[in-house]
Amino acid sequence: MKTIDDLEAELGGLRGRRVLVRSDLNVPLDSSGDAPRITDDGRVRASVPTLRRLLDAGARVVVVAHLGRPKGVPEAKYSLAPVHARLAELLAPASVAFCPETVGPQADEAVAALGDGELVLLENLRFAAGETSKDDAERGAFADQLAALADAYVSDGFGAVHRRHASVYDVATRLPHAAGGLVATEVEVLRRLTTSPERPYAVVLGGSKVSDKLGVIDNLLGSLLTSGDRLLVGGGMVFTFLAAAGHEVGRSLLETDQLDRVRGYIDAAAAKGVELVLPADVVAATEFSADAEHDVVAADAIPADRLGLDIGPAASAAFAQALADARTVFWNGPMGVFEMEPYSHGTRAVAQALVDGDAFSVVGGGDSAAAVRTLGFRDEQFGHISTGGGASLEFLEGRHLPGLDVLET
Ligand code: ADP
Ligand code: MG
Questions:
Q1: Average pLDDT value for residue range 31-55
Q2: Would you tell me which of 231, 252, 295, 297 could form a disulfide with 239, CB atoms 3.0–4.6 Å apart?
Q3: What is the DSSP letter of 408?
Q4: 157, 160, 213: which is closest to 333 by C-alpha?
């Protein structure tokens, strides 16, 4: 993978060059107030070093990114304008403009107006149907329009590299290109997690959708984890494991169509000597609400009318113990509904165990990253907080990521 240094050498310098940067600025927004508010600016902050590197070299930087999931047409609530405000603050005193169009005459004009060491952020890529189109020609036509805005391309939107999208994949085939600093760092971390990791290796999985994470479990039990390693499961996905082990899970999240597959994992872990750590207790509530009546119950005795919203205190202690002497930890998915205080304790306990231990710890997943930050932890307390949940999971599944493969060409 070429670096920005390589690209600089290839082009004979970056001063005055128009460089198209695909960043990942897909941040969570709270739109309940008068103006939308960014609730976790981690991805914006993570984008800054690459942009600053290019600005300092005198490049004319054109940033493209997506926000949310608009369906190929402009929608005001998905405008990148609030993100632009934060980006401008972080890059100050550099000149950081915003163009309310992604491609077209206004975008052409905004790029033409750039001076050396100045930046423009273009409006949400997904306001154009070509960005995510499954049709190669439609996507290619949009990539042509993006490529026409620049002399070179830098791929730095790690959170999107698993997508075969115009701004991630097709545009790299049309311009001299390089990986940005964020993509390079994320890939280095993932290689460390997948190529001779220090053991014991512990993987903590949680979050809401078991089916999203089954591919990872396949690869973990197939090749990454060996005897003495640990797989800890919490969050909403744990109830499919508890049900597969024969327990009643009440009204908790349950994916019944995955029960057989999960039973297979329980057997595979046992056969390999991988310790599967499931919670011994859970916090069971009458409703999905912070105010609901809730109690700690044994994981094999969840009342039929309750739903499990967090792992319990005994489970938190056991999880912390299973992490204490680990040398490598990958964590994806909160242990409970951390957004509500009564169900945030399991997630806090796992984060604290990583901070207390001395494993190389990687936190992946948008909600997991937001969880550790909103619970008051700092990024520096972990080995790495990934900006890309889906991308890091697909990498750990052993899949090829189109946005990384294309950078090798
Ligand atoms: P990430 O973004 O880190 O990959 P996910 O998107 O898979 O994580 O899941 C995060 C969500 O899972 C959070 O919004 C959290 O509230 C929810 N969650 C965690 N535990 C439970 C549970 N027991 N029941 C329902 N939802 C849960
Ligand atoms: Mg999520």
A1: 94
A2: 252
A3: G
A4: 213
CA distance 35 to 190: 37
- Contacts for 129 with CB less than 8 Å, ≥ 6 apart: 72, 73, 138, 142
For ligand 1, what atom is nearest to the CA of residue 212? 7
Q: What is the mean pLDDT of residues 155-182?
A: 98
* Ligand 1 contact via 258 beta carbon (within 6 Å): no
Select from 307, 337, 344 the residue to mutate for testing ligand 1; criterion: most ligand atoms less than 8 Å from CB. 337
Question: For 295-321, how does the pLDDT look when each residue is reduced to its tens digit (9 = 90+)?
Answer: 999 999 999 999 999 999 999 999 999
* Contact status, residue 241 vs residue 266, Cβ threshold 8 Å: yes
- 29 Cα–ligand 2 center, Å: 14
What confidence score (pLDDT) does residue 31 get? 86
What integer pLDDT is reported at residue 212 of this predicted model? 86
Q: What is the pLDDT of residues 262-280, one digit of tens each?
A: 999 999 999 999 999 999 9
Note the ligand closest to the C-alpha atom of 208: 1
**Whole-Å CA distances, 313 to 35, 302, 317:** 39, 15, 6
Q: Which of 338, 348, 367, 387 to mutate to test the pocket of ligand 1 (most atoms within 8 A of CB)?
A: 367
In one-letter notation, the amino acid at residue 368 is S
For 169-228, give the DSSP string: TGGGGTS-EEE-HHHHHHHHHHHHHHSS--SSEEEEE-SS-HHHHHHHHHHIIIII--TT
76 contacts: CB under 8 Å, gap ≥ 6: none
Give the number of C-alpha atoms closer than 13 A to the C-alpha of residue 110, restricted to the C-beta side.
22
What the block records as the tokens of 79 is: 């405008």
User: What residues act catalytically?
Assistant: 43, 209, 366, 390
